Amino acid sequence: MTVIKAGGAEPCGDGGGAYEAWRRQSLRARYAYGFVFFATNLLAWFVRDYGARALRGLHHVPVCGAGDSKCFQSGGVLRVSLGCFIFFWLMFASTFGTRKLHEARNSWHSGCWILKSLVYALSIGIPFIIPNIFIQLYGEIARLGAGIFLLLQLISMLHFISWCNKRWMPDPGSNQCGLFGLFLSTICYIASFAGIGVLYFLYVPNSSCEFNIFNITWTAILVKIIMAVSLHSKVNEGLLSSGIMSSYIVFLCWSALHSEPEAGKCHSHMKIAKDGDWATIVSFIIAICSIVMATFSTGIDTKSFQFRNDEVQLEEDTPYSYEIFHIVFAMGAMYFAMLFISWELNHPARKWSIDVGWASTWVKIINEWFAASIYIWRLISPVVLRNQFVNDEGFVPHRPTV
């Protein structure tokens, strides 16, 4: 039984049951927002590839005109992305500071879907009456927002690696074996080195592909550096976290090479160039699902972005940070816009293509190098800072005699 007051619903009697029901509703709401984001990705694709023919009514909108670039193709993607950004920004603003399940803002976050559907429809529609100059300005801002999203994704990835290491690898001083952690480590490293071999096979058909040879070789070097640093006696991080990170940067390398324009001579014969081919369609659908999963997994990992993670979770506390959840999805809206237009505001994307072009390739290469650098610094920073602290205190670190 609950009593409704001005500040929201407060439990009366079986308060624990009420809190548990609100908690389950809050957790289910995440999947609803994920579906909204997925549907928006599909809408952006439809407007880009088929909007000019299927949505002829938009040609009569003053800001669209008879052309295809302002409200369709790249312009249409930016307008849909802006609408998605507006919706999640409004959700961020309206749920900011929500900490208790009995607050009215918790009910707004977890329910009121009919009203939120109207807000979403208005958010998507408003950008189609905004002059094109403001859409181009949003596109420039979206590049920065997409970069911020990649940084948030990296932070979430590092948090996930730490969680895996704590869960499945024993402490250095214990006598536990950690067989499952060793098994996962082995699988990750086998996948990393096998993946590097596959990259050479697919993207280095001849010796003239110096760009691909350099990137694959440098990725292999980064994997070895990560492995060596993590096993160093002063670091002693173990193989699991470094194995997961190695697999991740190999994946980023593959993603970068896969984004190269297909006109190049360094692509495997396995690449399909036909529009509408079933393999291209399947690859496109997988790419969209990857975008949604990356955004969703980053959004639900709100503890990675909080300054304090040691606070005691009370029964009436919200299970995750609503404002962080919504701001991640808002940044994700900018990110999927950049992928659909390949990070170029006036990019004439081919149908059923996503994230293809030299701009996309370089974004992913830099992301790979940055991820590897951050992880290596994370490994060595305790040793470096500890030695620096000792020197500042006037002591000389102990050096073994030879």
From TrEMBL:
Pfam family membership, one: Serinc
InterPro entries assigned to the protein according to its UniProt record, in alphabetical order: TDE1/TMS
Keyword Transmembrane helix: yes
Localization per record: Membrane
Domain of life: Eukaryota
Membrane topology: Multi-pass membrane protein
Keyword hit for Oxidoreductase: no
Keywords noted in UniProt: Membrane, Transmembrane, Transmembrane helix
Membrane-spanning parts: 31-48, 77-97, 118-138, 144-165, 177-203, 239-257, 278-300, 320-341
Chief location category: membrane
GO terms under cellular component: membrane
Signal peptide: none
UniProt similarity note: Belongs to the TDE1 family.
Annotated protein name in UniProt: Serine incorporator
Gene from which this protein is expressed: LOC101759804
